[in-house]
Design a protein that fits this description.
The structure holds two protein chains of two kinds. Chain A is mainly alpha-helical. Chain A has ten helices and no strands. The model of chain A has no long low-confidence stretch (mean pLDDT 83). Chain B is mainly alpha-helical. Among the domains of chain B are: 56-104; 107-185, no CATH class. Chain B is 81% helix and 3% strand. Chain B has a two-stranded antiparallel ribbon with strand order 1-2. Chain B is elongated and about 140 Å long. The termini of chain B are far apart. The relative contact order of chain B is 0.04. The model of chain B has no long low-confidence stretch (mean pLDDT 77). Chain A binds chain B through residues 28, 31-32, 35-36, 39-40, 43-44, 47-48, 53, 56-57, 60-61, 64-65, 68-69, 115, 118-119, 124-129, 131-133, 135-136, 139, 155-156, 158, 183, 186-187, 190-191, 194, and chain B through 4, 8-9, 11-12, 14-27, 29, 32-33, 35-37, 39-41, 43-44.
Chain lengths: 194, 185
Amino acid sequence: MKITSYLQIVQKVLIEKELIEQCRNGDLHNFRKVVEKTSPMIFSVAFRMLGDEDSARDIVQETMITIWQKLAKIKSADTYKTWVYRIAVNKCYDQMRKQKRQKERRYDDQTWALISNHMSEEGITELENKDNAQIINFLTNKLSHKQKAVFILSELEEMPADEIAKITGMNRSAVKANLYYARKNIESLLRKYL
Amino acid sequence: MKMTEGNDRYKYNKMMEILRNSKPDLIQPEEIENEVIRKIRNEDQKTGMVSDFIESLFSWVYVGWVRRSLVGAAVVLVAVFIYQQGYILKQVRNINERVVNIGNEQVSVPPSDFARRLTLYKMSTKLAPAGEIRVSEKQLEELLNSYDELLVKYKDLIRIIEEDPALKQYIENKLNEEGNKKSDI
């Protein structure tokens, strides 16, 4: 199930090799198409990691500009997607460090009420961006940056451990360990309050 | 216990399903596209001026590596030229400062080596190192003139003595007498 949906996502955001190759030769017109196809996947990861729409949009812009500047340096178009995610995740790490310095987030009963409402509903509901950010921020608040990144890439973006290892620069067992602690932490939160 | 674990897993899975299902919406993606392209164009314009200049210089070369080598060689030559000019300028400034110092400084020489240093100064126009006697350049010039005059007069005197044998004999006798007196003492 997981692998199937992951493949669907890959197919959805798949950038044709030819398009990438053209952009590597400095074709800015085709790069607009690359931006169009790549932006949603970067935004998804950035939004879930940062929990803020404006910051996520900034990350998309910065990542796309970095991609343009360094596109010629990637070995082949095959590694494009992993490479894009790696740039985006690193930029998110930087942003998270800044945010942590700026303010410690506070959460109240309102978030629990929101989670409780959605959990009690029969089917699987779809959250608006604002609620989505609020819940992810709340659940991942106690996680380290690495644990948060692994949790989001694995559980929400549904990527396999090998790819997460390539994106984050960790080895496979470190990815699994981080994911284990993240799950445990979130489960205990849900057990405590729901 | 198993019931609790199962319940926890259910809550967790349901929460994950909700979050997975709620893919963040990128509102107005074209704004991001335009902004990215605009920023890239601005960056390109900044670097474009340099590449235009290189293009105008080396447009006659079509082979990539030859063009790059020529650009590299040009950069090295310009760097060497700038370094050379800077070095020459520095040397000229040093010489200039040295001339000014000669005009203002006082010269010091030890008394025992005075004549030799005067000659040396005359020959090389360099300043003697610090010592016990301090004279200005003007005073030194006067001394040099006196020394020259003295030298001329001495040579004239020797010539006159050489021309007159009687005078020469008389002076030799006098010098011998003086020598004998000194040895007796």
